[in-house]
Amino acid sequence: MEKVKKKPLFELEEKTPSIYSYQLEELKNWLITNGEKGFRAEQIFEWLYEKRGSSFDEMTNLSKALREKLTDAFQITTLKTIIKQTSSDGTIKFLFELQDGYSIETVLMRHDYGCSVCVTTQVGCRIGCTFCASTLGGLKRHLKAGEIVAQVVQVQKALDETEERVSSVVIMGIGEPFDNYKQMLAFLRIINHDKGLNIGARHITVSTSGIIPKIYQFADEKMQINFAVSLHAPNNDLRTQLMPINRAYQLPELIKAIKYYTETTGRRVSIEYGLFGKVNDQVEHAEELAELLKGIHCHVNLIPVNYVPERNYVRTPRNQIFLFEKTLKRHGINVTIRREQGHDIDAACGQLRAKERKDETR
């Protein structure tokens, strides 16, 4: 008799949903359906996102009956901090444990313009980029919107102690955001809402490795969210070598999707380009990249890679990084070199999880 193969559990089966997963209108509808006034949703949001309450019992301007209904219907997601690494430059990396025992990474980065949080959207990743620790062990499951929101809330609670505020969010942590599109989109709407975390759309950036159908869909959402594409190679063959997703969504079609995004939204796209020593960092690669991006409303973000022990790529020498940048500028391409942060901690995406949770990343 042939054995039935078990499918991976990519969706979390929640007995009690996270209230952080609910957008304001969804919560209003739930309240009305359950015999309550819709305006109570705004009061609940105030407790969750302004006062950062950790239990429904704290919500003293709600009736006891409503608090009991909320307690029965929802949970306020909490993340257990397994490890908190602090860099000399103020960067903090958190390794959080989810309620089912899986772990995720969230990073707080301090800039001159404020505090930015890099969030995770999946436990693991199935994209398989050959330079990334996040993909070690493959995809375990998608995160619910509330689990992504909880990362920002948890970091904000830490910042409350120093009277700082999360001013921007980047969705560039573990996982491919567009592979968890519905939950990612709900997360965006919750943190952007003025009754939610009230983080301005232009202070939020979402990145994709190039899931082309979702790029078209995201363009049609016409949100003011910043959009980034992880490119990492100037030609089809090299990109396939670095990023297996390129076999399914090849570079010429990806460029068409990027053009559609810029033309539909009128917004600039950020091109993320990791520099790997003697792989994609030569002058000829810069020349080829400039030709590829010619006429596209974009900005290239050069990323000197962090060394990951589980991978074989080495860092591009400093003078070569500047030569690559100079070549792009000579061709009229807007380009900057990303400032390195967290160099003295496990800063590379997925690196801390790979180090501390080997059972999840084998």
Note the beta-strand portion.
15-25%
Oligomerization? single chain
Question: Kindly state the mean pLDDT as a whole number?
Answer: 92
In CATH, the architecture of the largest domain is Alpha-Beta Barrel
Q: Kindly report the spatial arrangement of strands forming the biggest sheet.
A: 1-2-3-4-7-8-9-10-11-12
Radius of gyration: 21 Å
Summarize the biggest pleated sheet.
Answer: 10 strands, mixed
- Rough shape? globular
Q: Supply the number of helical segments.
A: 11
Percent of residues in helical segments?
Answer: 25-40%
Low-confidence stretches: 1-7
CATH topology of the largest domain: TIM Barrel
Domain Radical SAM core: 111-344
Cofactor: [4Fe-4S] cluster
Binding site for [4Fe-4S] cluster: 125, 129, 132
GO molecular function: methyltransferase activity
